[in-house]
Amino acid sequence: ADDVRAVVAAPGRRARAEIPQVDAAALFSAANSARRSGRYEEAVALYRSLQRRFPGSREDLVSRVTLAYLLLDRLERPREALPLFESYLAIEHDGPMDEEARVGLARALGRLSRSAEERRALEGLLTRHPEGVHAAAARARLVLLDR
Fold first, then answer.
1. Is the pLDDT of residue 137 over 80?
2. 81-108 per-residue burial string, b: 16 or more CB within 10 A, e: under 16
3. 23 SS3 class
4. Whole-model pTM?
């Protein structure tokens, strides 16, 4: 997934032709394709490469939440997912994936048996998105945490 270079031999001499460097959008697309095809470890590697190579790009920020859900739901690695949700929320205040990141944060904390922090994350979700698509489930989970 890194720079792609090709050496092209021309008659009587060697010429070096460069294939354009992969951009953030192409890397994000390749990672998403790998994820959708069930090639999860490949997707993880591609998302991480994207995040290293294009920090702060739109694709980097969205990939944090996408990768976090892949780690949480498909690979059952909540400890790795948690900092991705946290970093998205620290950088993207009210960003386009705010609600999804807050839900994921709460779920990761729950899977790690960190119920006090899970409660705070759910309360934060409801403060920011009281009528959001995940509000009813968040309220139901808070009731369970009270038991």
1. yes
2. bbebbbbbbeebeebebbbbbbbbbbbb
3. coil
4. 0.84
